[in-house]
Write a structure and sequence with these properties.
With 257 residues, the chain is an all-alpha fold. It has helices at residues 2-33, 40-50, 55-77, 86-124, 127-133, 138-176, 181-191, 194-220, 225-255. It has one domain. It is built from 9 helices and no strands. Helix 1 crosses helix 6 and helix 3 packs parallel to helix 6. The longest helix is centred in the middle third of the chain and has 39 residues, at 86-124.
């Protein structure tokens, strides 16, 4: 019994310490974001690394997600004669939920792991210590560009995923099942509101901030050489995934109540 309580207490203490460190790092990042000089060139480079290189994976995921949604929805709705509503379901599902969540997970798995590995390697090879020795702020130079880029890139990728997902639903509904193209687009625009799109982009923006902060934190405080870099990379992906999925529930309850 006492061993179980000790284990539970140890977990709570470690969780509290990790949360406190992340919040302190977030405060430093927000402070440095607003303080000149601004790392514009480095930020643009990170936009390319995080965003442009993620486009192929996002496109493939989005189009097949839209196609699966249309396939499953059409099959179900056909039982009670509501096939005309497939476009609405695909559009609302992509803009409100699937677009931002899947984009966040994809970027966390691809770019988030890269952030953690890169910063972790710099930490264990003492490159970050060298920056501090040269009076350079490693948070401003290394973390702020990645954080800023993720906040901008995630909504942009989400818009792309939404459009491609809706087109994927169109291909199945109209191309495979032969329903009316006019009906698909009419139902899509009749029930899709701007607030659905905006709230989905708010989700994406917060997911981008979360995954960048967690990935950079895991890499920045890496210990234990090459093995530690591997643990940091794995931890960054797992914690980012959990954070996105858990926060998605609370954001949905807040934005779409």
């Amino acid at each position: 019994m006492f061993r179980l309580l000790a284990l539970l207490g140890d977990i709570i203490i470690r969780f509290t310490e990790e949360t406190g460190r992340i919040l302190i790092l977030l405060g430093s990042v927000l402070k440095e974001m607003l303080s000149p000089p601004f790392e514009v060139g480095n930020t643009v480079k990170q936009m390319y690394e995080i965003g442009v290189k993620s486009i192929p994976v996002v496109l493939i995921t989005a189009i097949f997600t839209g196609m699966v949604l249309a396939l499953q929805t059409f099959t179900g709705f056909k039982r009670f004669g509501a096939e005309s509503m497939v476009g609405s379901v695909v559009a609302l599902s992509m803009t409100r939920e699937m677009g931002p969540v899947l984009t966040g997970l994809i970027v966390a798995g691809r770019a988030g792991a890269a952030m953690a590995a890169e910063l972790g390697t710099m930490r264990v090879t003492e490159q970050i210590d060298a920056l501090e020795t040269l009076a350079a702020n490693p948070v401003k130079y290394l973390i702020v560009p990645r954080f800023s880029s993720s906040i901008v890139i995630l909504p942009s990728l989400t818009v792309l995923a939404d459009i491609i997902g809706i087109l994927g639903g169109y291909l199945i509904t109209v191309g495979l099942f032969g329903t009316s193209s006019v009906v698909y687009w009419r139902r899509t625009w009749d029930y899709l509101y701007l607030e659905d799109i905006y709230n989905g982009l708010i989700k994406a923006c917060l997911f981008g901030a979360a995954l960048a902060l967690i990935s950079c934190y895991k890499g920045f405080y890496t210990k234990g050489g090459a093995e530690g870099v591997g643990r940091a990379t794995t931890g960054a992906v797992v914690v980012s995934f959990m954070t996105i999925l858990i926060s998605d529930y609370f954001l949905t309850a807040w934005l779409f109540e």
